[in-house]
Amino acid sequence: MRQTRLLQADPAGIAEAARLLLEGELVAFGTETVYGLGADATNDRAVAAIFQAKGRPHFNPLICHYPDADAVFAHVEADDRARALAAAFWPGPLTLVLPRRADCPVALLAGAGLETLAVRVPDRAAALALLRAVGRPVAAPSANRSGQVSPTTAAHVLDGLGGRIAAVLDCGVCEVGLESSVLDLAGGTPVLLRPGGLTRERIEAVVGRVGAGITPAQVEAARGLRSPGLLVSHYAPSLPVRLEAHQVADDEALLAFGLPLSGAAVTFQLSAGGDLGEAAARLFAGLRWLDAEGGRLGMRGIAVMPVPDQDLGVAINDRLQRAAAPRSASIPPAAAIPPAAATGPGATSA
Under CATH, what is the fold of the domain 241-349? Predict the structure, then answer.
């Protein structure tokens, strides 16, 4: 087990924390709400490591932290409501869910493959100094093992994640001690997905009526709210997805794990060496690339090789099962990001 370093929130400690993040390491840091488990949000392997460290069972969207509103709005589409809320409450305990820009550099895994991002500007001097030093968005869910109580001190983080992450930046006690409020602005009426450190009344004073959070059954019926981990068919490629494939037809695209099956016209390799961390990091990009490239080549579906149902494989299989779930014809395909976003090692077509 590795040793987790405790860094002081002084210039030297902040600089070291930033260096570690830029090298792909995980660093916990305090905000006004709770301690977050930070990773470079543009680094897919680092983002995958968050889920591994937390033992998170699903690839839920993560909140991306920025040093100011201008940095946020360079990566997401902001309407007048978003700008008004940012002016009123940032820095502060408010997370906004907004459509990501086409050129957004944040890893697809950080947004769980959705076309939206959850973004905020924390109200803590040390956290803001860290974000400025990193110069990139930092994905940071609460810095605790999945299902445990959110941490509000560096000691809490060490109790739960000591030996699993590179460092903790000790920013003192979190004064709010409650996670940020999450407001979805991706649709018409704002919807409060999670109550938190900012009250509904204060939000409504800026943007008017805010809809209440809705149940998974209501989401599944309406299919109108892109929210963390609620939809059964959570990512719906336009091509049908076939799981546990041990052979592949010549008119199927292949999502490979390990030694690829022969016969596919187009293949995306999740991990040639069977590395679940690498596979998690490449999952959403692979599905999108195969959906676009397979569609271009006239493939009839995507065959997926088996992935071990352990460690990050549990979350990978959860997402693959959602991708393969039956869905109504009214659900639009989610492959709006250009295929170029998923090119690179592992993406091949015959």
Answer: Rossmann fold (3.40.50)
